[in-house]
C-alpha cells in the first residue's frame, strides 16, 4: 500500500454511473447495488452521476435507484458539477463564479457504466490519462468488447467458434443497400438485427420475414449507424462469468447458468431483462460435465483473447447436436445483485459484496498505464 493509502484510514472509491446513452438507467440499477454493498469500514465512497447531457455531478450517497412500474431512473444533473483533470488523480468541483475546489485524491474508480461513452474504452482512456486506477478492462479490451463486429473477428481469430453474421456499415447501407440485403439473404431466416455498439438488448429485433428486415435495420441504426445481422442459432442460451485472479494466476470461470425466457418474448430482450419478471436463470445449467468444463475453458479463452481485466460475462449457445458457439463477451455486465454475472458468482461461492470488494482490490493491485 502506498503512502497515500497509509495517510488515510480508508481507500477512496469513486463510483461513476449514468452516462449519455440508452443504457443510462441500467447503469443506475447496478450502481445502487454497488453503493449498498460496498464496505464503508474499508472504503470512503464518492458517488458521481453522469447526466444524459454528459455532465458529471456529485450524487447523494443514500440514493437507491429502482424501476417504478415502467419508469426508469435517471441522474439528477442539478448537483454540483465535478471534473477529473488529466494527470491530477483528484476530483474538483466546478461551480459558476467560484474557483474550482479540490475534493481530494481518488484511489480507484468503479465505472458502473454500460454502452457507448462509458463501457467502450472512452472513460477508461480518460482515467488512464488522469493516472487513476479503475475496475474492469482497459481501453482496447473495452472498445473491442463493445463493438460486436470486431469482437467476433477477434474471437474467431483466436479459434473460438462464432455464428454467421453480416456487418452493415453506415456508408454501405446508404449507398449499396441492395448488395447488403443480398449478403443478409445468404444467412437465411430468421435473423437477429442489433446495433453493433449497444447493450442491454437495446434496438434488437428478430426478423422472420424479408419484408420487416429493412425496418429492423433502421431501428438498430437509431442506436448505432453500424449494425450487426446474425443468423439465428437454434440452441440453449448458456452464460458464464469470468473473474481475474490476483497476481499471475489464470482467470477463473464461474459455474455456467442457463437463461430461460417465457413464451411472451421472442428472445432475451430489454423488457424481459429489466421490466418484468420474465426470465429464469437456472444455475448450474443442466449440462454434461465435459460440456460445462469446455464452456468454462472457452469463456476464459475469450477473456484472454480480448485482453480483459477484472470481470466479464461470456454468452454461448449450446445446440441440440452438442456444439458450443460463442455469442458475445460483455466486459461490464449487468451488475445488480440479481443480474446474471453476480448470480453465477454467488452460485460459485463468491457473494455480491465479496465480488465488489475483489474487483476493487484487483484494480488497486494493477499498475496504471501500459501493462
UniProtKB/TrEMBL annotation:
Question: Which Gene3D superfamilies would you find in this protein's record?
Answer: 3.40.50.20, ATP-grasp fold, A domain, ATP-grasp fold, B domain
Cofactor requirements of the protein: Mn(2+); Mg(2+)
Residues that coordinate or bind Mg(2+) 1: 315, 328
Could you list the residue ranges that cross the membrane?
A: none
Q: Which reaction does it catalyse?
A: 2 D-alanine + ATP = D-alanyl-D-alanine + ADP + phosphate + H(+)
Q: Name one Pfam family in it.
A: Dala_Dala_lig_C
Q: Does the keyword Coiled coil apply?
A: no
Under PROSITE patterns, the record lists: ATP_GRASP (PS50975), DALA_DALA_LIGASE_1 (PS00843), DALA_DALA_LIGASE_2 (PS00844)
Pathway the protein takes part in: Cell wall biogenesis; peptidoglycan biosynthesis
- Residues engaged in binding ATP: 148, 192-194, 200-201, 230-237, 327-328
Cofactor: binding details: Binds 2 magnesium or manganese ions per subunit.
Q: What is its main location?
A: cytoplasm
EC number(s) in its UniProt entry? 6.3.2.4
- GO CC, alphabetical: cytosol
Q: Where is the active site?
A: 23, 200, 339
Q: Which InterPro entries match?
A: ATP-grasp (IPR011761), ATP_grasp_subdomain_1 (IPR013815), D-Ala_lig_Van_CS (IPR000291), D_ala_D_ala (IPR005905), Dala_Dala_lig_C (IPR011095), Dala_Dala_lig_N (IPR011127), PreATP-grasp_dom_sf (IPR016185)
For this UniProt record, give its keywords in alphabetical order, as a comma-separated list: ATP-binding, Cell shape, Cell wall biogenesis/degradation, Cytoplasm, Ligase, Magnesium, Manganese, Metal-binding, Nucleotide-binding, Peptidoglycan synthesis
Q: Where does Mg(2+) 2 bind?
A: 328, 330
Which protein family is named in the record? Belongs to the D-alanine--D-alanine ligase family.
Q: What name appears for this protein in its UniProt entry?
A: D-alanine--D-alanine ligase
Q: Which gene encodes it?
A: ddl
Amino acid at each position: 500500500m502506498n503512502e497515500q493509502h497509509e495517510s488515510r484510514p480508508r481507500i477512496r472509491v469513486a463510483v461513476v454511473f449514468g452516462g449519455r446513452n440508452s443504457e443510462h438507467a441500467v447503469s443506475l440499477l447496478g450502481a445502487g447495488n454497488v453503493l449498498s454493498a460496498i464496505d464503508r469500514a474499508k472504503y470512503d465512497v464518492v458517488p458521481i452521476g453522469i447526466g444524459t447531457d454528459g455532465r458529471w455531478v456529485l450524487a447523494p450517497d443514500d440514493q437507491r435507484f429502482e424501476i417504478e412500474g415502467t419508469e426508469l431512473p435517471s441522474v439528477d444533473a442539478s448537483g454540483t458539477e465535478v471534473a477529473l483533470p488529466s494527470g491530477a488523480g483528484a476530483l474538483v468541483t466546478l461551480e459558476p463564479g467560484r474557483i474550482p475546489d479540490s475534493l481530494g485524491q481518488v484511489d480507484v474508480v468503479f465505472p458502473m457504466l454500460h454502452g457507448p461513452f462509458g463501457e467502450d474504452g472512452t472513460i477508461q482512456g480518460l482515467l488512464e490519462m488522469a493516472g487513476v486506477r479503475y475496475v474492469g478492462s482497459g481501453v482496447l479490451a473495452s472498445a473491442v468488447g463493445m463493438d460486436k463486429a470486431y469482437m467476433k473477428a477477434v474471437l474467431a481469430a483466436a479459434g473460438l467458434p462464432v455464428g454467421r453474421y453480416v456487418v452493415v456499415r453506415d456508408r454501405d447501407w446508404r449507398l449499396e443497400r441492395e448488395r447488403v440485403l443480398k449478403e443478409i439473404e445468404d444467412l437465411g431466416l430468421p435473423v437477429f438485427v442489433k446495433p453493433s455498439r449497444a447493450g442491454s438488448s437495446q434496438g434488437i429485433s428478430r426478423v422472420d420475414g424479408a419484408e420487416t428486415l429493412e425496418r429492423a435495420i433502421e431501428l438498430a441504426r437509431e442506436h448505432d449507424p453500424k449494425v450487426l445481422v446474425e443468423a439465428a442459432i437454434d440452441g440453449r442460451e448458456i452464460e458464464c462469468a469470468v473473474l481475474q485472479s490476483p497476481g499471475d494466476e489464470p482467470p477463473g470461470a464461474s459455474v455456467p447458468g442457463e437463461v430461460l425466457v417465457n413464451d411472451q418474448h421472442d428472445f432475451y430482450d430489454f423488457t424481459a431483462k429489466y421490466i418484468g419478471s420474465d426470465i429464469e436463470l437456472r444455475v448450474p445449467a443442466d449440462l454434461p460435465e465435459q460440456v460445462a468444463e469446455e464452456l468454462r475453458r472457452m469463456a476464459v479463452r475469450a477473456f484472454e483473447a480480448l485482453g480483459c481485466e477484472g470481470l466479464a460475462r461470456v454468452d454461448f449457445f449450446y445446440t441440440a447436436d452438442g456444439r458450443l458457439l460463442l455469442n458475445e463477451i460483455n466486459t461490464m455486465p449487468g451488475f445488480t445483485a440479481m443480474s446474471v454475472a453476480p448470480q453465477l458468482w454467488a452460485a460459485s461461492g463468491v457473494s455480491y459484496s465479496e465480488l465488489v470488494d475483489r474487483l476493487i482490490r484487483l484494480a488497486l493491485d494493477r499498475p496504471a498505464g501500459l501493462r
